[in-house]
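Minutes, project check-in

Agenda point 3 was the complex the collaborators sent over. CS summarized: two entities, 757 residues total, and the question is how they sit relative to each other. Sequences were read into the notes so everyone works from the same version.
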Amino acid sequence: MAFKRVPQKFTASVNEVTIGTGDKAIVLGGENVMPLYSFDAPITNRVKIGVEITDSGYDKTVPGIAAFYAGAETIGEIAKRASEMPGGDFVVLTLEGADPNGANKPIDECVAIAKEVADAIDVPLAIQGCKNIEKDAEMFNKLAEALQGKNILLISARTEDYKQIAAGAVMAYGQKISAESAVDINLAKQLNVLISQMGVAADSYVMNVGSAAAGYGFEYVASTLDRVRGAALSQNDAMLQMPIVTPVADDAWAVKESVVSEEDFPEWGPRENRGVQMEVSTAAACLAGGSNAVILRHPASVKTISELIADLT
Amino acid sequence: MALKGLDIFKLTPKTNCKECGNPTCMAFAMKVAQGAIPIDKCPHMSDEAKATLSEATAPPMKSFKFGAGETEHAIGGETVLFRHDKTFVAHTLFGVNICTKCDFDAVITEVEKVSYERIGEHMYTEVLNLTFKGDQAAYVELVKKAMGHGRALILECTDAAAAAAALDVCAAEKPILNGATPDNYKEMAELAKAKGVLLGVSAPDLDALYDTTAAIEALGYKDLVLDVTGANVKDTYANAIQVRRAALKDKDRTFGYPSIVNLSKIAGGDTTKQTALASMFILKYGSIVLMDGMSYAQALPLFGLRQNIFTDPQKPMKVEPGIYALNGADANSPCATTVDFALTYFIVSGELERSGVPVNLLISDAGGYSVLTAWAAGKFSAGSIARFFKENDIESKIASRDLIIPGKAAVLKGELEEQLPGWKIIVAPNEATGLVKFMKDLNA
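CS then shared the predicted structure for the full assembly.
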């Protein structure tokens, strides 16, 4: 009596969303199976990796990152280097310097940086804001206008600012946005409904259903991902079928394990390796939950996760 | 599992004798179907009926213990594929591979370095997987060396003679004998049965694994563990998921056993890839995950992730109430307070540490809820904080009279000033992300 296989292939599938233009454009989503269950049915679009840089460049305190970007001086050169990182599919520019509680760079300056980045690369571009609602809403609209035709992904639109961002960035300038909610399937669905009610097409937005580093409440992230994917596929819930893009680097490199020095915690070993392990562990756990793209920083993490994706697709 | 009350009723004597404590046989059958009472409460049920029922009501996945004394661990017993459906029960165990040709002392020294406490749980590598490489005497020596290091053992050995010799030495430690294959399963099943140890089964593919497992069951041995490691990453991921899904969703008992995944065989030498794979197998059904090694850099995310995933979704994770001195805080450093919900604690303490400003973080018992929930439930109030101060004698332990409270609980300020006379209550930002700047400004 042989093992009876019962493949779980769903009639519903995750939406396909295209970022970028031309040969290097990427398609997120499209699968009709649980995360990376390629034994149930073929997965059309491989999971993608975004390589993160910031408006001030890259993290010079991490030797492996600094070595990778060595010699790249201008933001354009840095972006070009990021776009060539082996295993990466798109570049993510995080405009953290726009934060009014931080460097508070004016919007014009941020737009100029983004333009320089966009002109320097031929892969798709995603731009993360500074998490300040007022600033992001205004900045995203300016970015969308300045980069019209590039088909960029703006991360994120939240309950507080989705109206301005959806109306400006998507409806007026044809860019893509990511709907961000905080680890709760109902909040995720509600925001998707609100955005769709504005007339935004299903192929124009992705979602970030929340993220956390491994060990830092990741059970909420894992269960939210499981439930969202479950509802999208088994219940054919159209309001949860957006591809999921999860920013991993920001959380992974901010937790104590990736921050404290080897002098303070000698038994833990070099900080860089701790950061990389935290980044790949978190990213791999997100993949197992159904993320269609993860955003990473370190070349070693990008290499490992891209190999893992290739192995499993 | 899916047996209905009516099916059970058909197997009862239908005499309504009430000896089971229920008014009718029907009522009894209904309670058995719900799992409220065991079937043997009925003294008149035939053995045949009992066997049918215990088979049908048995859990879909077996649970076992292996190891002895302090090295004893539970594996298996899962009932759901996703933790939000109920909860995962037996957390993934981590093991390190050691072969007869390895430098045992070097490996065990590295393994023993990683040992620490995280939210009330001792974190360390629980298992040593001892792999046989063709030299029986060397293998027995390896087993002898591996005993007494506070870790449960797996004997990965398909050679029946070597396995028997190894078990002569360590059977009392209750190791897993991971050695049954389609070729040798008869001998191995006999050996495992004789020594009373769990038997690991492996095969080139899922069909062969299924047939071999069924054949061992037919021999009357059902204390099994399935080694689902395949030829590569893709096969191994597919095997782990299909085995667990067959058991829990499709109710196929032949695959209703815990699993072993050996990452050294599919990602040998690449520690970063092993970290990535181990993370996936925490979520996707690895009962025991074996690796080349386990450094602190790998352990910190992996044990943290495991601790997260194997929590009961209905019970929040809590940290112990107490005074947590951060950044070298002393009696003159200001105090800050928040709830005992582990996630809140980690985020808040992480941001406070990043600020570099010495501060005493006071955690009181708030039922494991977040700030707003605990406040709404009355578990994080001026009264509860004042009580914590009194019970822990904060005023004599700490000289500072500054207390920082969460922005989301700003409403407590006035009441706290009344209940804690002499203290200056300072309201922090709403979100933890603002804490670094806030603390630096406060300290300036």
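Noted in discussion: Chain B has three domains: 5-57, 63-309, 322-443.
Follow-up: revisit at the next meeting once the mutant set is ready.
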